[in-house]
Amino acid sequence: MDVRRYAGSGWLPAAILALGTAAVVAAYGTPIGQVATFAAYVMVGLALPGALWVRLLRGHPSHIAEDLTLGLTVGYCLELATYLVARAAGAPILFLLWPIATLVVFAAVPGLRRHWRGGGVRAPAWWSWALAALLAYVLVFSATTFFGRHALTGTFAPYVDMPYHLALIGELKNHVPPQIPYVEGVPLAYHWFFYADAAATSWATGIEPVTLLFRLSGLPMFVAFVVLTATAARRLTDGWWSGPAAVVLALLATVAVPYAASAGSVFDAQTLPSTWISPTNLFGLGLFAAVIVVFMDLVQVEGRVPRARWVLVGLLVFGAAGAKATLLPLLIGGLLTVLAGAVIGRRRVPAATIGGLVFAVGGAVLAIVLLFRGTTGGLAVGLGSLIAMPVAKSVGAGSTHGIAAVVVPAVTLMIALVLWSFMWAGAYGLLVRRRDLVAEPRILLLLGVCAAALGAAVVFLYPGLSELYYLRTATGAFALLTVAGIAALLPADVRRGPLLAGMAVAALIGGAMVMAIRAIGPDALPRLGRERWPVVVLGMALPVIALVLVTAAGALAARAVSRRSRRLTGAAPLLVVALVMGFSLPGVVQLLVSPLETTVSADPAIPGEGITAAVWLRDHSDPADVLATNLHCRRPPAADDGGCDARHFWVSAYAERRALVEGWAYTAPAIAAAAKLGVSDRTVPFWDQPLLALNDQAFQAPTAGTLAALRDQHGVRWLFADLTTADGDALARLATLRYRSGDFAVYELP
């Protein structure tokens, strides 16, 4: 066997990465048989049939990694479309007919067999190894920062939203159309396609939803994001080097923090720490990377677009519409920018762009009506997001009045624009050396996506700062623009070795300058209310002004160096880019070493005995059954935190049954009530107090009449009781005790 052949083809790094991934997830409690089953489903049930469809709809093969990852995203879309129909029809497993039929038809029909063969471009070996190394880091990061904190069995303290995600998977596994599982009768107004994918995967493989959520489902989504981002970069620059560079920027880029007195400065597109705790974000990253690849091709089409290509566009728009609410608005922003550039610059209306815009707008409208049910998710428009930025919070901007209420957000915006321009400074290369590139449709698409993301992060405010997901969704687009600008700045005749060394030195100087400014700066920023607003604004702005002065000095030094050194002739712009992007180095280093840090969760633990009782209830009840529970508050109510934290979801999550009332956060009624009362939707009182009182009376002082009301008026069949606050003796007399695990008991109503 010629090992060099396989090493050069990319299969060897892929195989090593796959084996390493299996070893890591097995080390964190995942049975190796389930790992193999999941891998087989992803490859044979999603990626391979999806790749066949991609080659058919595109009309040609591409690089095998591109075809398989783009096929994976198309496979997700086809899986979702068929699963939702099959689940609504009461036969969920029938969705597997689509991959089976695809494989059979493409093998049996002579005209389709050619799509099994490759023939596309081959990547250099180092490209494959580089992407495998980046994915290996992502795996290590995932294991140490997430897997280790989220056990598959027993008592553990998960991140607050993980039971919420698990509850929605259980809901989509048993019901379509879905509802909020922890408050009976409330429609689910959310982007829920990730949960449908996990539910379908659970049906296909028999793997528990908790294992998919905590260990497996995110892994192929990371692969899709990394490979497709690298693919888009290579096409944009015609250089293989740009692929790994774009992935590094997309995964690791952080905004500079020149403040010693603040844990941060302004929001950025950093997405790595939030991917596992926000699986919809991770799913959206993978699908949006595919959308960018396909739409970059689409906006370049001058004439008629083949009908098959529109099928591919439609599938990805469908998946993006329900994967993450931020995706299609960003795509629409990008397409509008392409359209404006064509009309203004070339006096023509590109039909392909118009067609893509029709698909994107249509998908967004359908998502608003069918998925989000006309709700806005608590969206507010104004200066709230600016006031919530770390540097503004550090000076107490939330309590501003008078002229300070305008000046402080305005200064925060200026700081954000400067720091963002430093983080993605490479993009300015498009203006410095190749201004003609700015009018190129693919660049316009990316510019529109990024501008829409920045605009949304500035003017929108959602509960829990969810507007940040506009930036996180666009992290790949920001990285692509940056590497495209760097490629435009590369001198044609410069030697790469000295250039890279010079850029590395410049970046290190930039990082050192940020650390020096931090060391010189005060330990606490002046705060509004204690200092006059001009003093506060000056304290906010001085560190950023210092960075601007460093940039100016660096530009002069870079020009002098490039003139004196023949090896760096023409490299001054790149040296300046490296300097200002180096301002982010301290944050990047902190992110890189974060897997080495040991953190203890401050979240309340979910008792293993309670999980056992909930799983018993799932296994001994019908999916249509409704339960009632006396567990509502994530923490005991306290006056200093606003009352009951209603983010309690784990009973419905592990039982996979709808609850009459468990928690009530993250629901449209709670968000509406919170906006009216001016409080958080996490701690807002439940909107139906008589129902909550009836529910709790059934546990605290149960009577035959109370239990009959739950059963006859609200369809409750099961009681899931925390016996530390329930009258267990009375419940045992009035209902049938079916199971007990420690302080948790399950009763069946007569």
Strand content: under 5%
| Strand numbers in spatial order across the main sheet | 4-3-5-7-6
Give the oligomeric state.
single chain
Distance between the termini: 69 Å
- The average pLDDT is 92
**What is the tally of beta strands?**
7
Secondary-structure class: mainly alpha
Q: Helix count, per DSSP?
A: 32
Helix content: 55-70%
Report what the structure shows.
By secondary structure, the chain is mainly alpha-helical. Helix content is 61%, strand content 4%. The chain has 32 helices and seven strands. The strands form two sheets. It has a five-stranded mixed β-sheet, with helices on both faces. It has a two-stranded antiparallel sheet with strand order 1-2. Helix 28 links the parallel strand 3 and strand 4 (658-659). Helix 2 (11-27) packs parallel to helix 6 (125-145) and helix 14 packs antiparallel against helix 15. The longest helix has 32 residues, at 533-564. The radius of gyration is 27 Å and the shape is globular. The chain starts with a helix and ends with a strand. Residues 1-8 have low confidence and may be disordered.
Which secondary structure elements does this structure contain, and how are they paired or packed?
Blueprint: H1 3-9, H2 11-27, H3 32-58, H4 64-88, H5 97-108, H6 125-145, H7 162-174, H8 193-205, H9 209-216, H10 218-237, H11 242-252, H12 279-298, H13 307-323, H14 327-346, H15 351-371, E1 380-381, H16 384-388, H17 390-394, H18 404-423, H19 429-432, H20 441-459, E2 460-461, H21 468-473, H22 475-489, H23 496-520, H24 533-564, H25 572-581, H26 585-593, H27 608-619, E3 626-629, H28 650-655, E4 658-659, H29 668-677, H30 689-700, H31 704-714, E5 716-722, H32 728-734, E6 736-741, E7 744-748
Parallel strand pairs: 3-4, 3-5
Antiparallel strand pairs: 1-2, 5-7, 6-7
